[in-house]
Design goal:
Oligomer: single chain
Structural class: mainly alpha
CATH superfamily of the largest domain: MFS general substrate transporter like domains
Largest sheet: none
Distance between the termini: 13 Å
Number of domains: 3
Radius of gyration: 23 Å
CATH topology of the largest domain: Growth Hormone, Chain: A
Strand content: under 5%
């Protein structure tokens, strides 16, 4: 393991550029598809519960694959992993683009997910190894700029393509770019890696897959099926038991697949907690705002994408700025200011009405994204900075896995809160209308009741989300500037033992 963590004198910008382009295209693909789901439902004649598997399935494969990337990064060269990840993503894109039945489309999406799951931890690990701690914030800021520009242009581009072409064009648009990046990597990436004598523990892989997969599937299904569904609570229970078994097994292995001892480093544990809590709160904007503007306000997908564009642009353009500020001032001041902005703007979104103006929503969303941009990358980088270099693969894999899990939990929680509040408010408003009219409400009034009830459900979800963001704000006051810790004695012994074999 030690041979892969040497700090180079000069970063290999060629490798980093190729990895960033590959990660960008996989991120862009995700944001492109979200706005196309209604068109896919209509064309393939499937229900909402079925089409959601395009996102749920993608999340599941990521949750299963990402924990293995710590092993893969230690075992194989950057070149081999990039070609494998980009190759899977390209094949999946081609399959999805020529799909005429849902199972083929889903298979293509899962192939894309398996490739994407390799790309992100690989890129983050290369960034950590390539730059010293004092320059890492600026480097991660540029990384954030490139990756955040995908969500910036994705919804707007997708809305335009959907209005002018069929949904398959989204995949056909990505295919030649993905092929070009794959060929670029094949000819330009030349790094080699000495043979590393480590082997994948398949029992750990099994428990990891069932554990993370079960939890992700259970929480992802809760919003649609309800918490009382056996499909929800049984899969979550099996997932938790498998995950606990997986963690216990890792603590007993000489070379764990995913090393949970990294949580002994306080700044990494704190940064992971803040990122998870913020992820849950952030999903309220990603999930609830599109429902509000399209379902309640009747705004077109293209205009909805345009409304979110300034916020995404602010987030991407702020990444290099916050990176340099992080190098100069550390993570705490950025996190406290950013989370204060996020909490206040999330609370403001809990006061929406059916007359809230388009420009107000655009500006408020942009300010909220400004706050989030000041938190995500600085907090994550500060936590990773405390880890000894040989733990970087485990830290990046852990962060990406926890982001998937917290995203699923946040989505399920907020959808459940919105659904339950909408249902209870509908009953209240119907009872009030029936009493006032001394009879059943008209169809027009019934429609108005449903809209008001859904609005109340969305507002209440934003209200709860502001408290979730507030928890992250409290945690941010405990952040300290992190420096790499010393390599644990037992880890040195393991590395020495492997080197002598």
């Amino acid at each position: 393991m030690g041979e892969s963590i040497q700090q180079p004198n000069k970063p290999n910008y060629g490798i980093i550029a190729i990895l960033m382009i590959g990660a960008f295209i996989s991120f862009l693909n995700n944001t492109l598809l979200n706005i196309a789901l209604p068109s896919i439902m209509k064309d393939l004649e499937i229900e909402t519960a079925t089409v959601q598997w395009l996102t749920t399935g993608f999340m599941l494969v990521n949750g299963i694959m990402i924990p293995t990337t710590a092993f893969l990064i230690q075992k194989y060269s950057v070149r081999r992993l990039f070609l494998a990840g980009m190759g899977l993503f390209t094949i999946g894109t081609i399959v999805a683009g020529f799909s005429h039945i849902f199972p083929t489309l889903l298979a293509g999406r899962m192939l894309q997910a398996s490739g994407s799951a390799i790309m992100m931890p690989l890129l983050m690990n290369v960034m950590l190894v390539s730059f010293p701690v004092e320059k890492r914030g600026a480097a991660m800021g540029v990384f954030g700029l490139i990756l955040m520009s995908a969500p910036a242009i994705g919804p707007t581009l997708s809305g335009w393509i959907i209005e002018h072409y069929e949904w398959r064009m989204l995949f056909h648009f990505i295919t030649p770019i993905a092929v070009g990046i794959l060929l670029m990597g094949f000819f330009l990436l030349k790094d080699k890696k000495e043979k590393v004598d480590i082997h994948l523990d398949f029992i750990s892989l099994l428990f990891s897959s069932v554990g993370f997969g079960g939890i992700l599937y259970g929480f992802s299904s809760a919003g649609e099926k309800g918490w009382g569904s056996p499909q929800v609570y049984l899969t979550i229970t099996i997932g938790v038991i498998s995950l606990i078994t997986f963690i216990v097994r890792q603590s007993k292995l000489e070379r764990p697949m995913l090393n949970f001892t990294i949580f002994k480093y306080p700044m990494f544990a704190l940064s992971s907690s803040i990122s998870m809590v913020l992820n849950m709160a952030m999903f309220s904007g990603m999930l609830l705002l599109p429902i509000y503007v399209q379902t309640l306000r009747g705004i077109s997908p293209f205009d909805a994408g345009l409304m979110l564009l300034p916020g995404a642009l602010v987030m991407s353009l702020m990444s290099p700025i916050t990176g340099r500020l992080f190098d100069k001032f550390g993570g705490r001041i950025l996190a406290v200011i950013g989370l204060t902005i996020t909490t206040v703007t999330t609370f403001q979104l809990s006061t929406l009405t059916l007359e809230t103006t388009y420009n107000y929503l655009m500006i408020l969303h942009a300010i909220r994204m400004l706050g989030i941009s000041m938190v995500m990358m600085p907090v994550s980088t500060n936590g990773l900075n405390q880890l000894p270099p040989q733990f970087y693969p485990h830290g990046t894999a852990m962060n990406n896995t926890l982001n998937q899990v917290s995203g699923a939990i946040g989505t399920a929680l907020l959808v459940t809160i919105m659904s339950n509040r909408t249902e209870s408010r509908t009953i209240e408003l119907q009872a009030e209308a029936t009493k006032e009219l001394a009879g059943q409400p008209t169809a027009e009034l019934q429609q108005q009741i449903m809209m008001n009830a859904m609005l109340d459900g969305i507002n209440f979800s934003f209200y709860i989300s502001s408290f979730i963001a507030g928890v992250a704000l409290i945690l941010a006051f405990f952040i300290k500037r992190a420096r790499p810790a010393e390599e644990p004695k037992e880890e040195r012994q393991v590395v020495k033992k492997v080197a002598t074999n």
